[in-house]
Amino acid sequence: DGGITQSPKYLFRKEGQNVTLSCEQNLNHDAMYWYRQDPGQGLRLIYYSQIVNDFQKGDIAEGYSVSREKKESFPLTVTSAQKNPTAFYLCASRMTGSATNEKLFFGSGTQLSVL
Amino acid sequence: AQSVTQLGSHVSVSEGALVLLRCNYSSSVPPYLFWYVQYPNQGLQLLLKYTTGATLVKGINGFEAEFKKSETSFHLTKPSAHMSDAAEYFCAVSVWGNAGKSTFGDGTTLTVKP
């Protein structure tokens, strides 16, 4: 089945530690996105990538980093500089090229908590 | 810049009653509008979208929404609520040429009472 796979489902971070969230898609989508979701709030964009080896900051990029070495993969690293990392992280993707593709497909998310 | 306001963070209806979830948007150019549903500890799933054409849009699970430009609204409705509709619903807006970046509302939690 085609889709987006996020792993792990739950992740715990110790103070001062960097952690990496995985996102893999087999939908052959060009664009990929990382969103952060906090309780009672909407999704906020962290980073996005429209093409391999290129990515841009979203609204809340500080304390995060990404890479896009392969079309299928868009890992997110939460660095020690992110002082409030506890949140639900969602990866999404979409095909580009026309208005009919203006919809996002989401993974099932990773819940990150601080120990 | 674009923005979305969802009116009411919590909505409660009885099973079989009308569901109405409100969404107003702001956009300086013609918007694309979406409703997504999220079940606990899961990702978001697209219910329906408006890009161009017919302003009344039908989606999955019996939901529909109407794009009203004059009111800058895109309210979600369903004639008869089912217990399985209990979830969190997000309205989102994007515009062409903005790299597919969607701006999301804060969400509305729908509770369905038996």
Could you walk me through the main structural features you see in this protein, from its secondary elements to its overall organization?
Chain A is an all-beta fold. Helices cover 0% and strands 49% of the residues of chain A. Chain A has strands at residues 4-7, 10-13, 19-25, 31-37, 43-51, 54-57, 64-66, 76-78, 87-94, 105-106, 110-114. In chain A, strands 2, 4, 5, 6, 9, 10 and 11 form a seven-stranded mixed sheet that branches. Chain A has a four-stranded antiparallel sheet with strand order 1-3-8-7, with no helix packed on it. In chain A, β4 and β5 form a beta hairpin. Chain A is globular and about 40 Å long. Chain A starts with a strand and ends with a strand. The mean pLDDT of chain A is 93. With 114 residues, chain B is mainly β. Chain B has strands at residues 2-7, 10-14, 19-27, 32-38, 44-50, 56-58, 64-68, 73-78, 87-94, 103-104, 108-113. In chain B, the strands form two sheets. In chain B, strands 2, 4, 5, 9, 10 and 11 form a six-stranded mixed sheet that branches. In chain B, strands 1-3-8-7-6 form a five-stranded antiparallel sheet, with no helix packed on it. In chain B, a hairpin with an 8-residue loop joins β9 (87-94) and β10. Chain B starts with a strand and ends with a strand. The model of chain B has no long low-confidence stretch (mean pLDDT 94). Classes of the chains: A mainly beta (115), B mainly beta (114). The A-B interface holds A 4, 6, 31, 33, 35, 40-45, 48, 50, 56, 58, 90, 92, 94, 96, 99-109, 111 and B 4, 9, 32, 34, 36, 41-46, 49, 51-52, 90, 94, 96, 99-107.
